[in-house]
UniProtKB/TrEMBL annotation:
InterPro entries: Adenosylhomocyst_ase-like_sf, Adenosylhomocysteinase-like, Ado_hCys_hydrolase_NAD-bd, NAD(P)-bd_dom_sf, S-Ado-L-homoCys_hydrolase_CS. One of its GO terms (cellular component) is cytosol. Residues 188-349 form the S-adenosyl-L-homocysteine hydrolase NAD binding domain. Belongs to the adenosylhomocysteinase family. Its cofactor is NAD(+). It is an enzyme of class 3 (hydrolase). Pathway: Amino-acid biosynthesis; L-homocysteine biosynthesis; L-homocysteine from S-adenosyl-L-homocysteine: step 1/1. GO terms for molecular function: adenosylhomocysteinase activity. It comes from the Bacteria. This is Adenosylhomocysteinase.
């Protein structure tokens, strides 16, 4: 059975529109294009099966086709029910990649798509949030036999992997791509910072300047969201549980206070923690009328939506991706994208130039696992520095930027303890 016949997508007739989106993204992904030239000639993944669970949109499609061009048989599914774009899924299916994904599937369909992707019996996996790894280790250990290892895209997935590793239950090596230093800088900070506000602004069509934005969590993603909110003219409040990060937020010029206090002031709330219940019923009780709630973490657990629904006397959709909750005292609170990842559920995700670098890390780390899985062992490893630096150098070269190099004398000086 060929990939088109095996695939589960909403409508293959959408493929031409998906291909247009992919062509646009590819034009702005010079690092992946450089890798494609090399890997399509060398075909280092020939004979390998690769299973991918990522946000299924145009930039992801470019990564999937790169891995296919490197010789692999690729099966792909989404990593969030609201981030799959049906035209992209269709375009990939007709291009020879097996796809199990639809926009807004039922929970049962979403789970089934993940399992069907794993039933292709992959040698390597790329995961986003840890769903593939979780299913392999809990429900379908019968599919573990061929898996050499893989890569994880996001903080939430790495937390799950570290938990498996700690209890010695992890069955294969995984590279923590999210923790690459370059990814912290460009993806988590600049990518999330821009794409979150892209999603919020296109969804609400409301001004940010002069408003108060509460950013929950000041990790790399929170830094980006806060920085862009400030640039849009907002007053920014940061809430944190980590004293060092809170100190950094203060030194960066933001107001820092507990969430119980910040809840009284925010016009916009953006969660970026990866933890559950960071905005809860206690906070809803004191929020201003018209407050807008958005989540920028992987799973829809950061805002306690169940508590908000229980408090509300009515709920209605007032605009695409905006739900209005009417509270007993007459206040209205607005939830974006069902509390799911706002930049992808209500937008197109990170800019192409950002994902160009992130997905180059993914591709090179996948090759690293393929070639070194026996040496790595059953553990979570950081991205090797040479891969991190290589991607950064490719980016600089693609943009015509040159940097200095150490002289031989400088290298000797830095390597010596003597003055």
């Amino acid at each position: 059975m060929n990939p088109v016949e095996k695939s589960i997508v909403r409508d293959l007739n959408l493929a031409p529109n998906g291909r247009l989106k992919m062509d646009w993204a590819r034009e702005h992904m010079p690092v992946l294009n450089r890798l494609r030239e090399r890997l399509s000639a060398e075909r280092p993944l020939a004979g390998q099966k690769v299973a991918i669970s990522l946000h299924l949109e145009a930039k992801t499609a470019c990564l999937a086709e790169l891995i296919r061009d490197a010789g692999a048989d690729v099966a792909i599914t989404g990593s969030n029910p609201l981030s799959t774009q049906d035209d992209i899924a269709a375009a990939l299916a007709v291009s020879g990649i097996t796809v199990f994904a639809k926009y807004n599937p039922s929970p049962e369909e979403y789970k089934d798509h993940l399992i069907k992707t794993l039933e292709t019996k992959p040698d390597l996996i790329i995961d986003d949030g840890g769903d593939l790894v979780s299913i392999l280790h809990s429900e379908r250990p019968d599919l573990l036999e061929n898996v050499k290892g893989g890569c994880e895209e996001t903080t939430t997935g790495i937390l799950r992997l570290r938990s498996l590793e700690k209890t010695d239950e992890l069955r294969f090596p995984m590279v923590a791509v999210n923790d690459a230093y370059s990814k912290f800088l460009f993806d988590n900070r600049y990518g999330t910072g821009q794409s979150v506000w892209d999603g919020i602004n296109r969804t609400t069509n409301l001004v940010v300047a002069g408003k108060t934005v509460v950013v929950v969590g000041y990790g790399w993603c929170g830094r980006g969201v806060a920085m862009r909110a400030k640039g849009l003219g907002a007053q920014v409040i940061v809430t944190e549980v980590d004293a060092i990060k809170a100190t950094e937020a203060h030194m960066d010029g933001f107001i820092v206070m507990p969430m119980a206090e910040a809840a009284k002031f925010g016009d916009y709330f953006v969660t970026t923690t990866g933890n559950k219940g960071v905005i809860s019923a206690d906070h809803f009780h004191v929020m201003k009328p018209g407050a807008i709630l958005a989540n920028a973490g992987h799973f829809n657990v950061e805002i306690d939506v169940a508590a908000l629904e229980q408090m509300a006397v009515s709920k209605r959709v007032v605009r695409k991706d905006i739900e209005e909750f009417l509270l007993p005292d007459g206040r209205k609170l607005y939830l974006l994208a069902e509390g799911r990842l706002v930049n992808l559920a209500a937008g197109d995700g990170h800019p192409a130039e950002i994902m160009d670098m992130t997905f180059a890390l993914q591709a090179l780390c996948l090759l690293y696992v393929h070639e070194n899985h026996d040496k790595i062992g059953r553990k979570v490893i950081d991205v090797p520095y040479q891969i991190d630096e290589q991607v950064a150098r490719y980016f600089l070269e693609a943009n015509g930027i040159r940097i200095d190099r150490l002289t031989e004398e400088q290298e000797k000086y830095l390597a010596s303890w003597q003055l």
